[in-house]
Amino acid sequence: TQPQQMRWYALRWPQAEQYWKETDLVYCTAESYIPTRQSCLAVTVHDAALFEPDRRAHTGNWMQWGKWKLLYRRLTKEADLFHTVSDFSAERIAHYFPSIRDRLRVVHNAVTPHFFESPPEEGRAYVREQGLRDRPFVMLPRGLHYRKNADLVLKAWPKIREAVPEALLVVTSHNDPGYVERAQEM
Fold this sequence. Notes:
Blueprint: H1 2-11, H2 16-19, E1 25-28, E2 40-44, H3 53-56, H4 61-78, E3 81-84, H5 87-96, E4 104-106, H6 121-129, E5 137-140, H7 150-163, E6 168-171, H8 177-184
Parallel strand pairs: 1-2, 2-3, 3-4, 5-6
């Protein structure tokens, strides 16, 4: 909870060993902090998007940015290991917090078991309606954005089209308008 996180941050109390006496490792599955006495602290950090200048410009992000700045300041001093989900995220996190570079590891996301199942009829119907059933396509989830490596996607796309001329690039979610313009010119 937020009050507990504030106590942990401000007072470094209660420490993890108070709850789990014989622990060697405390693992935070997302950006959070639990003080430890002797146990190792490992934290998953998903990205540094909130620290990117274009993200800070949105008014609603200033409070979150300040909170995360304090959190990262504490984590850089106390966490033994950080891990993130991509090389791109690792590079951006290390850019903003260079002191954690040697403690930062990339552990890529895995797929869920249903990834290997046949798609449901609803999904097959959608593919047919969009004209994708008999056509190769590359799906790019989460949109064309700098933090989703859109520059690399747009650089690679002509090479993919050259190899597979009938292929389509299918982009989901919201896009940065500048990248949409570039994509439409291709």
